[in-house]
């Protein structure tokens, strides 16, 4: 029992962070499927979501409004970024596109520092801070919100890709863009949609985690890179892979920081990333190639 | 003709180096020039990788850091001869690059970018956390200067005459590499990997070679940096510095050895000229990366030259042949 209690506690915090990584990973996957670009600006959408929601909450203290408003603004940012920075590229080879998204990430971070400064801002928890007891461990209502809403979002995403015409069109583009064009799918619109969707998921992740970690201009870089690691670990472009990769990474990180050393906590994600790249580059569930 | 051209270029470089030294008014400018030199070493290597091998390293600061910390720790803590430490630093960085490069470069696509990104962050975390060796976030002090016999490179002016001949050597080496058989294979690789392979170029091995070279350059720069400042801290070797290096390459122009000098020069001098620059540094880098890649993918020099030619062409009433 004595060993079990902290382990359960690690599991709770691990799954909470893991859910956030999963949402970010899905954003990477959706854009990768539509364009084969790795959008390194994805982490900054998380930061913009968190800070945007905090600012909206400051003006009008309503959490649902802050959540929806934050997601809406960032979705727009994602779509505009694709339109202004990626679509005009005349010679879209991978290295050019990577550099542009890295430039975008750095740019968003700098602009956020200009708008919000360097201090960290709080966002109230969605339903109070009274901890619940779960056997020997405690769990905050916000942890449940993060896990629950993530599960809901993932299911909604799955339904979108399986059941709606637009979702099916996006999948068709991911399989074969040219063939999708031939059957009349506007591939350009799908790319735009993928950037909007990925930005919305990132923003949602940022707003969910903000009550637990505060919102600050430089939070996006690390979260983005970890979400990216989660995507690679699970298998880039796979929905299931993104979720599994995220949760696995979150739990591994929590266990490592609890049992080994908290200083090296951030290294776990990148060690796993290197390990997966070397041993199983298609990721845990990736099967193609 | 080839040899003559080469000789001329390098005598010109040496003459220019001496001329600059003669007109530079004070030590501050020597310090600035020395940093330009160190950045140039880093940028040339990364430029070979990005411009010729078509791969990108998002963790080049890590190799810079490995060189700096190997030199720093061995000389400051263990009293090892600085030149020996420099060579050991090269070995450490080269081995690290080899270990990452072998698996990552076998695969097509972004794998080197991802692997170097992960590696860069891990190295940064270790530099911060391994306090007993690295001194942690507050840094490592007391690194001795390099010296030859009794002549110690302990002033900016003296360092200038160490760093810039090194830069000249590395530029010459890189120009040679690009003009060699490997270089031609590299360019073939850059244009079409499949075509290069079909002509018998071992592309994975070639990319690995360039990647290791670029890590060696970075390590050399790191060792020089450690002995120039006599103090190092992890903050100089983080993710943002890797991005800054990529920005220098992009600005100077990918696949341009001399462009490296320009990219490193501009982005080293700019923060000194603009005092407000520091706060907005990230925004400026972001804008440079995006704007140059969208509008001048050949870099500043060639991009502007193309633009000028285009203007003249238009003024003369030319039209585009279809």
Notes on the protein architecture:
The complex is a heterodimer of chains A (289) and B (322). With 289 residues, chain A is mainly α. Chain A is built from eleven helices and two strands, in the order H-H-H-H-E-E-H-H-H-H-H-H-H. Chain A has helices at residues 4-35, 42-59, 63-86, 94-116, 141-163, 165-175, 177-182, 187-213, 219-234, 239-259, 265-279, and strands at residues 132-134, 137-139. The longest helix of chain A has 32 residues, at 4-35. Chain B contains 14 helices and four strands. Chains A and B meet through helix 4, helix 9 and helix 11 of A and helix 4, helix 5, helix 11 and helix 13 of B.
Q: Determine the N-to-C terminus distance of chain A.
A: 46 Å
Q: How many individual domains of chain B?
A: 1
CATH topology of chain A: ABC transporter involved in vitamin B12 uptake, BtuC
Assembly context of the chains: heterodimer
Q: Number of domains in the coordinates of chain A?
A: 1
Proportion of helical residues of chain A: over 70%
User: Beta-sheet strand percentage of chain B?
Assistant: under 5%
Tally of individual helices of chain A: 11
State the secondary-structure class of chain B: mainly alpha
What is the 3D form of chain A?
globular
Count of DSSP E strands of chain B? 4
For the sheet with most strands of chain A, the description reads: 2 strands, antiparallel
Strand content of chain A: under 5%
Distance between the termini of chain B: 38 Å
Low-confidence stretches of chain A: none
CATH architecture of chain A: Orthogonal Bundle
